[in-house]
Amino acid sequence: MTSQDTAVNTGTGESAADSPVIRREDPLGSIRTMAAAHNNWGRWGQDDVLGTLNFIDAGKRVEAAALVKSGEAFSLSQPFDTNGPQKGWRRRTNPVHTMTDTGVDAERGNQGFPHGFGGADDVIAMPLQCSTQWDGLGHIFDQGKAWNGRAAGDVVTSEGDLVTGIETAAAKIVTRGVLLDVGRALGPELGRNDGELPDGFAITPEHIERTIALQGASSRVGRGDIVVIRTGQYTRVRRTGWGDYAGGPAPGLSFSTAPWLHRSEIAGIATDTWGFEVRPNEFDGAFQPLHQIAIPNLGLFLGEMWNPDGLGEACAADGRYDFLLTAAPLPITGAVGSPVNPIAVR
């Protein structure tokens, strides 16, 4: 038994290692079988560019707005600075923030403005997926196919995502959010009191349902919701240092959650980890196989590197786990992902 098998067999529910949808000896077959069984191609027409964001409608936004009771707001974003988690993999670096005009320039009067007017300006250079972000529908392909069965090369070229660019979602992501604090909810059953799942822990559908049951009625998940998963890994790395947060071992969703993601009809799902799904992945030699189902086949928006810690404390204090969530991507034309500052309002 490997260390990963130990991790995924800890806790309640079916072990990811024993799941019939995870055939370790046949990763490609498992992925193809899952994609065929759980697929939304054509569901909203052949020209669709929004995928599961179609589940968010005006009525859903009205429902979400009614959840605001105290007006308390939480940013679910990590910082965007040079102290971030990135280590350069695939040229992903941390943000570089540079001042182009400063108070020193204003004091010395060398900005060229009249009558004592002065100002400051700045610029930032960063990959679009270096901190809290959405994966767009053009980010991941399966067998050469992008969302809705389009040829990947027809969708994303050197000019960007010509079809499902992240700008198409700019006004869509305002809806009911639900925090599933898996780390805190399952901790006692796992023999932990720190609210943090261990790296390599695969969150199965049974773990999700158990968390919902423990948290109560406000945690029900339904059509058009965005689910925010707290594993506690972000809490841990902010205490101990980034380490291998970017790309290393992590708790996360099991490949076996794909059917749950499909039937729940959620609009999106975000985690406090670098890569959303459990790492190491559950297939030998695989790379992010749940992404391969969720984005190109389900059309599901995935959020990564979110920071739900403050929200989690507030939800645990009063037992209310749903809220109004606004998480608009920047309308960067042709981008396959976007930084985001999600705001939860309770």
From TrEMBL:
Pfam families: Cyclase (PF04199). One of its GO terms (biological process) is L-tryptophan catabolic process to kynurenine. Residues 1-24, 75-113 are annotated as: Disordered. Residues 1-13, 75-85 have a biased composition (Polar residues). GO terms for molecular function: arylformamidase activity. It comes from the Bacteria. PANTHER family: CYCLASE (PTHR34861:SF10), PTHR34861. This is Cyclase.
